[in-house]
Write a structure and sequence with these properties.
This is Putative glutamate--cysteine ligase 2. By secondary structure, this protein is an alpha+beta fold. Helices cover 46% and strands 13% of the residues. It has 14 helices and 11 strands. Strands 1, 2, 3, 4, 5, 8 and 9 form a 7-stranded antiparallel β-sheet that branches. Strands 6-7 form a two-stranded antiparallel sheet.
C-alpha cells in the first residue's frame, strides 16, 4: 500500500539582524517581495513579522525537503535585503510579546478583540503536518488512535525553552502559552464523527464558536482538507528535524489506518495519561519518565519512542527510513531546546552577558533556519 500524501506548514519570525528581535522595519516590503517569489505558498500569520510557508500536496520526504529548502533559502535571501533573517523556533528567544505588532486584518482584529491578552501573548511559531485520510475512514476514530503518541512528537520537536528573554524552565514554553487558550491542547474524546458533529452543533448553535476553525487542538480533522492535522509540534530550526516529524506522523497515520482499534484507546484514562505525558514533554522534552498509555507503566522517552518506531517502521517508505535513525539520535543527544540551552549556558559560564548569550542563540537559530552550517555545541 502506498504511503499517504501529506502537506507541511512552517512558521517563521522575521528577525532584525541588528537587534536580534522580531523585526519592526521592512516587514511589508519583505512581505511583498516574498509574495512575488513564492505566491500563495507564503501567508501572513497573527503578527506582522510572522510568516508561514504552505507546501503543496507532497508524496515523499525528498519532495518535501526540496520544497521547504527552496522556500527557506528564498526567504532568507529576501530577508537579508532588509537586514533581517528568518527564524523557525516555537518562541523567539529574545522577544518580549508586548512589543510585537499584531496583524491588522479583519480576521485577526476579531481574534485579538475576543481573546485579548491571551492572543497578544501568543508570539509563537508551529509546525503543522496534514496527512490525507480516505473519505470512507472516520477521522475522529483515527484521531483517537493517534492522540496517545502526540507527546512523543512534542518532545522531538521542542524548540521553545526561552520566553521574554530568559530561560523558562520548560522545553516547550510554546505549549504553555497555548494552554491559555480555550479548545487547545489534547482534544476531547469523541467516540466517532457523529458524536463530534453533535458537539460541534451544540458549540455553534450556542455561539461558543463560529465554526470548527475555532477548535485548535494538538490534532484535529482539517476543516478545509480531507486530512488529519498535527498541530502539537514546535517550529523546527533544523529542516531535517521538521522532515522527521512529518515522516513519523505520516507513518503513524498509515499504521492507524491499517491496525485494529483496541478498547484501551477509548478508555478515559488513556486521555488522562496523554495529558500527563504532554506536560512531561512540555516540561522536560525528551528527559525524565513518561507513562506508556497501554501498559500504564513508566518508561524513559527513548524506550517509549522505540516502542512507537517498532509499530510504524513498516509504514515508512524504504528511502525515508533515515528518519528512524534521526528520531533515535534526537532522543539520545537532545533536540533544539537542549541545544539552545547549551549555547546559552556555555556563554554565561564564560562570562558573557545575558543579552549577548541570547544573541548567540538567535544567531544559531537564524543560521539553522537558513540551512547554513552551524558549529555544534557539546
Amino acid at each position: 500500500m502506498a504511503a499517504s500524501t501529506f502537506g507541511i506548514e512552517e512558521e517563521y519570525f522575521l528577525t532584525d539582524l541588528n537587534s536580534r528581535r522580531v523585526a519592526q522595519n521592512g516587514v511589508e516590503a519583505f512581505a511583498e517581495a516574498s509574495r512575488r517569489e513564492l505566491g500563495e505558498r507564503i501567508t501572513r500569520e497573527m503578527f506582522a513579522a510572522q510568516f508561514e510557508v504552505v507546501s503543496p500536496v507532497l508524496h515523499d520526504l525528498d519532495e518535501a525537503r526540496k520544497c521547504l529548502g527552496d522556500a527557506r533559502r528564498t526567504l532568507a535571501r529576501l530577508a537579508a535585503e532588509h537586514d533581517c533573517g528568518i527564524l523557525a523556533a516555537g518562541t523567539h528567544p529574545l522577544e518580549q510579546w508586548r512589543r510585537v505588532q499584531a496583524m491588522d486584518t479583519a480576521r485577526y482584529r476579531a481574534i485579538f478583540d475576543d481573546y485579548r491578552i491571551v492572543a497578544s501573548r501568543s508570539v509563537l511559531a508551529g509546525l503543522h503536518i496534514h496527512v490525507g485520510v480516505p473519505k470512507e475512514v472516520d477521522r475522529i476514530r483515527l484521531m483517537n488512535r493517534l492522540t496517545p503518541w502526540l507527546p512523543l512528537l512534542l518532545g522531538l520537536s521542542a524548540s521553545s525553552p526561552f520566553w521574554d528573554g530568559r530561560p523558562s524552565g520548560l522545553m516547550s514554553y510554546r505549549q504553555a502559552v497555548c494552554d491559555e487558550w480555550p479548545r487547545m491542547g489534547i482534544p476531547d474524546h469523541f467516540h466517532d464523527t457523529a458524536e463530534y458533529q453533535h458537539y460541534l452543533k451544540v458549540m455553534t448553535d450556542t455561539g461558543c464558536i463560529a465554526s470548527a476553525i475555532n477548535l485548535w487542538w494538538n490534532i484535529r480533522p482539517s476543516l478545509r482538507y480531507p486530512t488529519l492535522e498535527l498541530r502539537i509540534a514546535d517550529a523546527c530550526p533544523s529542516l531535517e528535524d521538521a522532515l522527521c516529524i512529518a515522516g513519523l506522523f505520516r507513518a503513524m497515520v498509515d499504521h492507524a489506518l491499517n491496525a485494529p482499534h483496541p478498547a484501551w484507546f477509548d478508555d478515559p484514562l488513556t486521555r488522562i495519561l496523554t495529558v500527563e505525558n504532554r506536560w512531561r514533554a512540555k516540561r522536560r522534552g525528551m528527559r525524565g519518565l513518561f507513562v506508556e498509555p497501554h501498559s500504564q507503566r513508566t518508561l524513559p522517552f527513548t524506550a517509549w519512542l522505540e516502542t512507537a518506531l517498532q509499530c510504524i517502521t513498516e509504514h515508512v517508505p524504504a528511502k525515508d527510513r533515515p528518519i528512524l535513525a534521526h528520531a533515535r539520535k534526537l532522543a539520545r543527544l537532545g533536540g533544539s531546546a537542549e541545544a539552545q540551552l547549551r549555547i546559552y549556558r556555555r556563554a554565561r559560564c564564560n562570562g558573557v552577558e545575558q543579552r549577548d548569550a541570547l544573541y548567540e542563540v538567535v544567531d544559531t537559530l537564524l543560521a539553522q533556519t537558513a540551512l547554513q552550517e552551524v558549529r555544534q555545541i557539546a
